[in-house]
Amino acid sequence: MGRMVAGFLACVLSFTLFLAIAQAQDTVKIGVILPLTGPNAMIGQEEKRGIEMAIEKINAAGGALKKKVELVVEDNRGDPTVIVSAAEKLITRDKVVALTGGYSSVESLALLAAMRKYEPVTVWQGGGAVKMDQMYGKERWFFMLHPRSPDYQRNITDFLYNIQPRPKRIAIVYEDTSYGVDHSKVAKQYLTEKGFELVTFEPFKSGSLDLSSLLTKIKGAKPDIFYWIGYAGDSILLTKQAKELGFAPKMMLDTVGVGFPEFRDSLKKDSEYICGIEVWAPSTKFSASTQYPQFFPKTEEWVAEYQKRYNREPNYWSIISYVSLITLTNSINKAGTTEKEKLIAALETTDTMTPMGHMKFFKNQFGAIHQSFHEMVVFQWQKGQKVVLWPQGAVGGTLSYPFPSWEKR
After folding, report:
1. Domains in the chain and their CATH numbers?
2. pTM of the predicted model, to two decimals?
3. Does 190 or 396 have the greater pLDDT score?
């Protein structure tokens, strides 16, 4: 009797294992790493919305290799140490065929250092530090969608240089991790080469609860432009405390922190006239892809679908994550396999229009062999909307300069 029971249990276990293997073979697993909680959760949730929209379309169209695409999502909590363990889990335990996701340069550098021993195909949308290009850009398994810090600073410098009357004195402060340090060095170089005077150039701690002493010092330097390089939470705090101190220079400008609807919604009228730069804005207009129109419609159609689905305006983090996942699965289908070398070759041939712009990987001047997007738009908040001011061919309105006092906003 005992032998019969043991035999029966063995059969059940074998059948269960068979089903598990069969089910695993019926899906194509892709690992996604995002900062869904922690200091960068606002960005991670935006990326998650774009990825959710993409996976629904992918599987509705037949998935990858005629199999359902299964996303295995890990929250790295904005912690570089967590991102390493999350990636190792995805590769060694979950057996994903590729990785996507990402946000900051600090997290991305930690990931890349750890992934050299695994070399997974990675289509990454986070991090703008040139250090990533210099250290890991030549890795054939690594594909980067996000523009680099010089792409940001070239556009900002050209924008400021073309303002009339041209500002002269600029105060720069930057958060003290890889992101801020890398951007600030390039900004300093580009702006001084164009003849601007830097009256302040100082780091600050991202996530600080009080930056009033730094702002008091900057106010005393009397800059025309106050330019900070920081994340969304930093941008809200700096703007609030600038108002409290009565600091109202001719322009307040940031990189990525002021682009989210939460910046406008949190500060309301105090967000008016603040300028920022983004990889993409919803008001841009790109035609539909001829190869993949079901995935990459023209920009206004994609924006309308996103707004209907989530009842909010998309940010560039939502569309870059969407494009990243679609590009990866399109390449799997083009390769006809998840075999690494063939998938890399398929990704390298990507050449299509997307709602975010033209998608094609190229070799940049900083050592990376697979960079994609590099164009940027400078905008200003006006009446609760982003008005695109740069580049000249994409201008959607007129810069309000100099800024009015806080009382007149």
Report:
1. 28-147+283-360 (3.40.50.2300), 150-278+377-408 (3.40.50.2300)
2. 0.83
3. 190
